[in-house]
Design brief:
alpha+beta; FAD/NAD(P)-binding domain; 14 helices; globular; binds flavin-adenine dinucleotide; binds 2-acetamido-2-deoxy-beta-D-glucopyranose
Length: 433
Amino acid sequence: MDEGQGLHVVIIGAGIGGLASALALAKHGIHRIDVYEVASNLGFVGAGIQLAPNMVRILQRLGCWEPIAREATELKIASIRQSSDDKELSRVDFAHIEERYGTPHMLYNACKEEKAISFHFNSSCTIKSWEPRPVYTVTPLDGAPYDGHADVVLAADGIKSSVRSRILKELDVDAEITDSGQSAYRIMLTRAQMANDPEMLELLESDQVTRWIGEQRHVIAYPISNKTIYNISTAHPDIHFAAAPSATYTTRGSKEDMLDSFKDFCPVVQRMLNLVPDGEVCEWKLRVHSPLPTWVGGCVALVGDACHPTLPHLAQGAAQAIEDAGVLAVVLSMLPNQSPSSINKALKIYEFLRKERAETLVDLAAASGRALHLGEGAEREQRDKQFAALVRLKKGPNPDKYLDAEVQEMIMGTDVMKIAQDEMRRALEVGID
Ligand SMILES: Cc1cc2nc3c(=O)[nH]c(=O)nc-3n(C[C@H](O)[C@H](O)[C@H](O)COP(=O)(O)OP(=O)(O)OC[C@H]3O[C@@H](n4cnc5c(N)ncnc54)[C@H](O)[C@@H]3O)c2cc1C
Ligand SMILES: *[C@@H]1O[C@H](CO)[C@@H](O)[C@H](O)[C@H]1NC(C)=O
Ligand SMILES: *[C@@H]1O[C@H](CO)[C@@H](O)[C@H](O)[C@H]1NC(C)=O
Ligand SMILES: *[C@@H]1O[C@H](CO)[C@@H](O)[C@H](O)[C@H]1NC(C)=O
């Protein structure tokens, strides 16, 4: 039993998906893990991500939750407001969600404690072939390319994944990257920046997440870092990307364009956006792709944004990458032998357990965006009636799926690692090789 622990696993990419996979595998006893990352170090964009409770459970098991827990900011209320006049459309008690945030650095620090994990920065990596065992090619920044053999390759190489293209090409299918037509600004204001504006200070000191919604765009904001920082992000049509090459995902935005995008929003939102220093506006293009026919080719599997990029409206992208990691660690560590066909079966179980759930969330995030961004008309009236009913009845469907009780239950109430263990046990009883 547990022959899986002797596997040599190569991970491509040291984003959240790659780091969480490396850590989860090491914690499950797998003792040879090589992580290749094209970047020179972990200089991540952005300050942190929201940590939903479903990823908390997994991070706890991986022993890197403590440092994060100390930074918790508890949000009790969600307020949905009409962008034009700040009128409250709905107000939802969501005290059961404790918003915490962390950066991939906590995962990296935990990985560095594990002897099993070796990091190779400045090293681009891709798949060369995978029959019967995967062969990968590493191209160091300043050196000659070399090939290596692994038992398993996990491609956590992000939305632009080259391994995904490779797998799909081999299978002779394509899944196009689709343009969501949306992009996002991410902004953090400090207490000092907001200090002279009582209305803003009140927002910073609240236990509230606020969403201002308007046609084709919205702004979501809440206090983080023990209320020393107000975290704002937007979604809006990506017209400023029109001229950018299709490979571009982030761009230095113009403040003028940003203000122009939200010129119909109420004064407090405009004042907040106006506080962003010139030259510090960063705009993200939000890309997704159609569901893939498979996440697995032989002993190679896709992880994270490489296989399920999700619009940020549910704040679940990173959480889903961490669920991938937790499930992969369970199924691989339980393998009774190291034959490629057993590994492939374990990876297929990973795909079976993760694909439908991740894709459901991809769809829900997109649906939520559509509902939030409705323009005037019958549909919007219907939506606003639902928002109002939530205040009156304290229950019912929420058009903002991030706040919908049923969706929350589905996301938070599922222990994917436990399910993976049960599923793997069942498979082992029948015989996996
Ligand atoms: C505006 C915005 C807001 C978001 N907010 C949230 C949120 O609040 N909560 C949340 O859970 N998620 C959020 N997300 C999503 C989240 O950031 C992603 O889902 C998550 O980071 C994906 O991690 P990943 O490891 O799969 O991919 P990535 O983070 O893209 O990592 C891929 C890594 O692979 C490396 N790489 C690529 N190709 C190669 C190669 N050939 N060789 C070696 N290395 C390679 C890259 O350099 C990179 O480091 C947000 C996303 C956006 C755009
Ligand atoms: C990556 O390469 C850069 C430039 O050569 C170098 O400064 C950096 O130290 C390298 N990173 C690592 C982790 O070796
Ligand atoms: C800030 O808000 C954006 C949008 O909700 C989110 O993606 C990001 O993770 C948040 N950052 C923190 C630190 O919560
Ligand atoms: C958070 O801020 C409050 C009020 O300023 C302070 O009393 C508390 O110690 C802070 N907590 C942490 C963990 O920094």
